């Protein structure tokens, strides 16, 4: 049975609704909310605490970008660079680009990938067999990446984060947004807001430079292309139109160049290992060509000696792909009802906008040099961090965010026709309602099919959910009045309710997403991850305790070795006691079973015992050096002393201390 639509006075009326109550207000603490750019290729976490400038958090080695790769080849899921290293050996157990799969059904995966899909009857979630009986969805893999970023932030903050803003491509539909939000929950994050990536970029630019007007945001990443037109006015950002391609990015440049290289090497059917090597090398060559005119290819598995690729040849290879993105840009400008002359700027986002051809064609198409002052890899994370800071309750100069519905939302009606209820580019949050009627008098139920997309036939749109409205009174054809309300919250997440108007019987319906994990499944995963979070915290405490104790041991050892020859600084009894405590501390640090509390106790004891000795050293130094000197001279000497101490600690040690 289907619904059939009759025209009614208020059909399709928009009710602008207030932003929903913020849940758990108590956890919104200014200063402890993070912004996350959950990218297809790379992910980043940034912090903009209490109105401060946003900064991206790095790992011990100073790297900001975390490869969005999760390895299930080890006992515990591993994320980032180590996972990348596992990939050649375990191609099906190391998941990358999971963002391409998130919120999609197994039948929608129409692109090449090396993974083993697992299908359960009636289950519409993509799941991969990642070895040793383990099955994992893209949502869980994304949650692993988010956990890693959260841990990075918590190490930096020294306490749990209060919440996060996670960015998603502007055209992500409801299922993809739901899935991303679920990943956040599984990672133990309160997701304040899902923010469209171009909006985040505009936010970063708008605040940093105080510009206003119309802007286009051109985002070409590893796996996705996304272009949006925004209006910036009085600190308010409004997305006017969006478009893009979720299956186009720098990875495609790599694959095209890789195919060229294999052709040049005379390899028709590469082995998986060969293909992987060539793709990786193609990426290196591509990235170098952003700086150099010619790059020499180095392959070990394919016969290609002294082969050189010029920038011109590379550009010829990828030009049609870049032109596709330009065509999309024109369409989006048209959607926004603007010409290139109306634009005040074009913002470049994503690593692939470093390719000179991309910059050139974008400049040509928009007839102006694009803005590149903010690092295109980081700009989205900065914007997310600023938004998180605002949502956590910080005062910031009147930043509000208006976003739009990326794709129209509607219901399937008789004959498989889509009735659009919320049109594309409507500003969210929003609610809209439509009245439907019965088709035959025997009809006591209606089956509702919620779809998203621009096509006229439901079969050509994205199926979001189905639900059944039952218990309708048997009424003559076209007499029933069923009012369906679509409500979109600020994250563009949809709630659908239906009400029978003739009987005034309110029927609330639960919408089950067509793709995505069930509520129960998400809750199980959240519980699992909370158990792990406790372990994660313990591990971090332990690591910090070790570093601290190591620092004190080194300082005391250094002092002991230097003052051995100076009379009266240290009694023999003190020396014996210190040596004993140093020995004990070193034993604790090398023992894998010891807990953080024991290590901290040892450090405190050592600090206490060595305290009088340290004071005597200081006094001796002052007396020896300072007699008859002015205060500023004394300060200079002390400063010099600090420097030499730092040098003695050595660069590595100093770095470790800073990052904990
Ligand atoms: P995503 O948003 O999809 O995670 P990123 O914005 O991190 O992606 O972009 C990753 C892509 O950018 C990769 O395809 C990478 O090869 C490409 N890239 C990074 N640096 C350069 C460069 N210097 N020249 C060309 N491409 C680059
Ligand atoms: Mg990106």
Structural summary, described in words:
With 660 residues, the protein is an alpha+beta fold. The chain folds into 3 domains: 126 residues, Substrate Binding Domain Of DNAk, Chain A, domain 1 (Sandwich); 302 residues, ATPase, nucleotide binding domain (Nucleotidyltransferase, domain 5); 96 residues, Substrate Binding Domain Of Dnak, Chain:A, Domain 2. Helix content is 39%, strand content 22%. Strands 1, 2, 24, 27, 28 and 29 form a 6-stranded antiparallel sheet that branches. Strands 3, 4, 5, 6, 12 and 13 form a 6-stranded mixed sheet that branches. Helix 5 packs across helix 6 and helix 11 runs antiparallel to helix 12. The site of magnesium ion has 6 residues, from loops.
Strand content: 15-25%
CATH class of the largest domain: Alpha Beta
Name the CATH superfamily assignment of the largest domain: ATPase, nucleotide binding domain
The span between the termini is: 62 Å
Q: Which sheet architecture does the biggest sheet show?
A: 6 strands, antiparallel
CATH architecture of the largest domain: 2-Layer Sandwich
Helix content: 25-40%
Low-confidence stretches: 1-26, 637-660
The geometry reads as globular
DSSP summary, beta strand count: 30
Class per helix and strand makeup: alpha+beta
Ions and ligands: adenosine-5'-diphosphate, magnesium ion
Number of domains: 3
Q: How many DSSP H or I helices?
A: 14
């Amino acid at each position: 049975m289907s619904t059939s639509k009759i025209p009614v006075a208020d059909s399709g009326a928009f009710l602008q609704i207030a932003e929903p109550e913020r849940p758990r207000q108590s956890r919104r603490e200014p200063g402890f909310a993070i912004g996350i750019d959950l990218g297809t290729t790379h992910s980043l976490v940034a912090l903009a605490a209490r109105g401060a400038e946003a900064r991206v958090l790095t790992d011990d080695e100073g790297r900001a970008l975390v490869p969005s790769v999760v390895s299930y080849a080890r006992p515990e899921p591993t994320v980032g660079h180590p996972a990348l290293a596992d990939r050649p050996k375990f191609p099906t157990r190391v998941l990358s680009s999971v963002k391409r799969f998130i919120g999609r059904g197994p039948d929608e995966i129409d692109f090449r990938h090396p993974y083993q899909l697992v299908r359960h009857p009636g289950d519409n979630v993509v799941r991969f067999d990642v070895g040793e009986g383990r099955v994992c969805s893209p949502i869980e893999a994304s949650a692993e990446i988010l956990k890693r970023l959260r841990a990075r932030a918590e190490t930096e903050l020294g306490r749990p984060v209060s919440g996060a803003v996670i960015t998603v491509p502007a055209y992500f539909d409801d299922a993809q947004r739901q899935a991303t939000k679920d990943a956040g929950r599984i990672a133990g994050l309160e997701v304040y807001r899902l923010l469209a990536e171009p909006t985040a970029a505009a936010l970063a630019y708008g605040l940093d430079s105080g510009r206003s007007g119309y802007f286009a945001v051109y985002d070409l990443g590893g796996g996705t292309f996304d272009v949006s037109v925004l209006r910036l006015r009085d600190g308010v950002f409004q997305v006017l139109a969006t478009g893009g391609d979720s299956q186009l990015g720098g990875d495609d440049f790599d694959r095209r160049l890789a195919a060229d290289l294999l052709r040049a090497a005379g390899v028709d059917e590469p082995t998986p290992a060969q293909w992987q090597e060539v793709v990786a090398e193609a990426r290196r060559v591509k990235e170098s060509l952003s700086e150099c005119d010619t790059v020499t290819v180095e392959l070990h598995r394919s016969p290609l000696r002294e082969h050189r690729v010029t920038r011109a040849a590379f550009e010829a290879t990828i030009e049609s792909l870049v032109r596709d993105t330009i065509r999309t840009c024109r369409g989006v400008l048209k959607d926004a009802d603007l010409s290139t002359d109306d634009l005040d700027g074009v913002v470049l986002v994503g690593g692939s906008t470093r390719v000179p051809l991309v910059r050139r064609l974008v400049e040509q198409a928009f007839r102006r040099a694009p803005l590149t002052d903010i690092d295109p890899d980081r700009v989205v994370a900065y914007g997310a961090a600023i938004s998180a800071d605002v949502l956590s309750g910080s005062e910031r100069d009147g930043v509000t965010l208006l976003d739009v519905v990326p794709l129209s939302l509607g219901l399937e009606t008789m004959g498989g026709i889509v009735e659009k209820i919320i049109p594309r580019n409507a500003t969210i949050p929003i609610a809209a309602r439509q009245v439907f009627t019965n088709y035959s008098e025997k009809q006591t139920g209606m089956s509702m099919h919620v779809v998203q997309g621009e096509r006229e036939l439901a079969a050509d749109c994205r199926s979001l959910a189905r639900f059944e409205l039952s218990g309708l009174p048997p009424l003559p054809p076209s007499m029933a009045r069923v009012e369906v309300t679509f409500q979109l919250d600020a994250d563009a997440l949809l709630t659908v309710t239906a009400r029978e108007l003739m009987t005034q019987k309110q029927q609330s319906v639960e919408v089950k997403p067509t793709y995505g994990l069930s509520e129960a499944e998400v809750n199980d995963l959240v519980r699992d991850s909370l158990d792990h979070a406790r372990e994660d915290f313990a591990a971090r405490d332990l690591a910090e305790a070790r570093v601290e104790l190591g620092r004190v041991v080194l300082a005391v050892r250094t002092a002991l070795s230097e003052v051995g020859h100076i009379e009266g600084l240290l009694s023999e009894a003190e020396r014996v006691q210190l040596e004993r405590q140093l020995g004990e501390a070193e034993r604790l640090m090398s023992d894998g079973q010891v807990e953080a509390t024991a290590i901290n106790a040892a450090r405190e004891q050592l600090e206490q015992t060595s305290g009088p000795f340290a004071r005597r050293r200081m006094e001796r130094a002052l007396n020896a050096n300072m007699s008859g000197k002015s205060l500023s001279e004394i300060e200079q000497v002390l400063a010099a002393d600090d420097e030499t101490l730092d040098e003695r600690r050595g660069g590595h040690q100093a770095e470790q201390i800073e990052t904990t």
